[in-house]
Every structure is written in C-alpha cells, then in structure tokens.
Amino acid sequence: MKKNCIAGARICALTLLALPFAGCFSYTSPYDYVENWLAREDPIRTFVIHADVIYVQSELYTKLADVQKMQDHVRLEVGKDKFSGLARVFSPLVASPEDLEEALKWYFRYHHKEDRSFIFIGEGEGGALLRDYEEQHAEELKEKGLVASYYCDEHKRGFVTQEMVEEIREAVARARFRQIWGKDMPEGMLTD
Q: pTM for this one?
C-alpha cells in the first residue's frame, strides 16, 4: 500500500510539473495564422452566406514571391465584390501539394460545415495542384459539398468572369434546394 501511495505521489508531482508545458507540444497549423492566406473570410458570415470559394492562384509561393502582388491578384479575381452575398473566399498561400493539403485540412476543420457548398477555382501551377487534389479525393469532396470546380492552365487576368459567378450561383442554389427538399430542383425554376 505504501509503495502505491509513493508511486501515486510521484505521478501527481510529475503531472503538476508538466502542466505549464502542456501547450508547448501541441501542433498548430501554419494556416492558423492569417498571414498564410491571400484571402480568408470571416467565419461569422456562414449564417448569411451558404457557400465558400477555395481559390488557388497561379503563382506558387517562394521566398522571392511578391506576396502583395499575389494578394492584389486574388482581390481582382475573387474579391468580395465578385462573390458578395454568394460565397466567402479562402485563398491559401501554397508552395507545394503538402501546403495545399494542410490548408484544406484546416479549412474543413474550422470553416466547413456539413451542409455547406464549396467551389474550387484554380489557375496555373496552383490550379494544377488543386485539380490533382480534387482527382485524388473526388468522392470525399463531393460528399463534403463540392458543387463546381473551374481551372485554367495559365495565369489569366479576368479568369473569373461574371458568367462563371452566375454558374456558381446556380450550382449553389441547386445544392441548397437538394439539401432542404431532398430532391433535385425542377428545371426552369431558376429562370422563372
């Protein structure tokens, strides 16, 4: 009995000593930090806006990359004006497939809800990474709510057109209808 009490006291003492350091060993994602995103929208807007756009731009991040120029391009292509009231925009700063996977893992953990539609848009090298990810995880992404994806193999100013935004609006409306009513939206309902 005495040995058990001594062992228990040692365990308690070691536990108390380790408590101040407990947070030091937990893993944090680089995408916890806003500076690793070219665009990352407010999570509160999920109640008003029922879809998200995941946008990966053509230029991959390197130490020589001009991040400000990359942010400007993201604002031009998928800024709040283009998707106002339709979708929140998330654009991670990526340098590799592993970065993209980590960013998407972070997004699904902290910003994606079960009934939330999302759209992939990618350009150039970044778009190729996103397309590869979609091909590798097609069924899983469809189950999570991927309703559309758009890719361009080059860096193209003006890739996200008003026509594309309208197609996305329609895809989101159809997905929302399916979610609420449990069946596909009747043809012509959006044009009436």
A: 0.79
